Amino acid sequence: MKLRDALTKPGLSAIAEVKRRSPSAGDLRPDADPAALANEFAGAGASAVSILVDDRFGGSLADLRAARASTSVPLLAKGFFSEESELQELKCAGADAILLILRDLDDEQAAKLIACARGLELDALVEAHDVDELDRAIALRAEIVGVNARDLATFDIDRRAQLELVARVSTSDCIVVAESGVHTRAQGAAAELAGADAILVGSALMRAPVPAAKLAEITSRPLVKVCGLTRQSDVDDAVEAGADMLGFILVDESPRRAEAVLDVPDERLSVSVFVGESEDAGADLVQLYAREPGSVRARDAELLCEGKPVARVLDLPWDEEDPSHFARAAAADGRVVLAGRLDAGNVAAAVRTVRPWAVDAASRLEREPGVKDPAKVRAFVAAAR
User: Fold this and answer.
1) pTM here?
2) Which pLDDT tens digit goes with each residue over 87-128?
3) Are 20 and 46 in contact, with CB atoms under 8 Å apart?
4) Do residues 197 and 282 share a domain?
């Protein structure tokens, strides 16, 4: 299978990477077995596997051959390639795709290597680190564009800049891969909502006790949102319990009104909740309900990323029952955030029935309005998983 075909399935795809060491972090998994890991990653749902063949990462062509012998998923050969003969060698070793780093190539070199790859029936993942390189990739008509959050000169990670570039390139007719900087389910979701078709995950997997289990964790759905948070201690408890998204209701009429968006770790997503009109409260996402006469808010909401609708929040009618709620949500198209009096006792059944992108709970996790019960939060997150 071609890499570009593997990355076009619905939802967020994942390229799992095998690398023994990193110039920035040193040894990651010196004894990594590329054959075993490639097979395990495929079993855990990886759409493709990336193999470092550069000795600076502890890799070699032998690793690529070993991985090829163990799995049928597409293999991406990663290294610093500049010669057509290298691509021929990679093809013979079992690669389905190769990495081309625009930082190290001028446009003439890149164009020749892209053409060579096509002639060899190899896909090319063309990697960009900034706006100029991104524009070059688009001008080169790259079919797969990788946006790397890591500056290869300083090794610093800038995920916010990466997401801005992902959003910019997602309007083009190419597959977008967010590379580096993804260690959690929420970080993968952030790339997805910005417009990435896939994420490439390496270091997080290589550091994990069970790499394939870590991959499954990062790509699993639904995400879990705990909403109606008003105290930092409750935010911290929800993060410790494993919540992916933390919600803050900034609506005067709500008994769960927060004074502001509280501190949320970078590896999670913050969500500000508004009715009628939204404002910039410093959250990663905005959940916006319409106003409805005779009620605090309308039933459903839109989840917005940089002002763009990215999911629908499907809720129960305000203070009413609706026996058809799950069936209505299951029939909805696109990403669904399921809400409406969810708790540890009913969320597992809701997930099985609806298969939502995320689940959202607030009132059923409380001791009193705006004050969470840590035990209920932990039980809800565990049940949703």
Assistant:
1) 0.93
2) 999 999 999 999 999 999 999 999 999 999 999 999 999 999
3) no
4) no
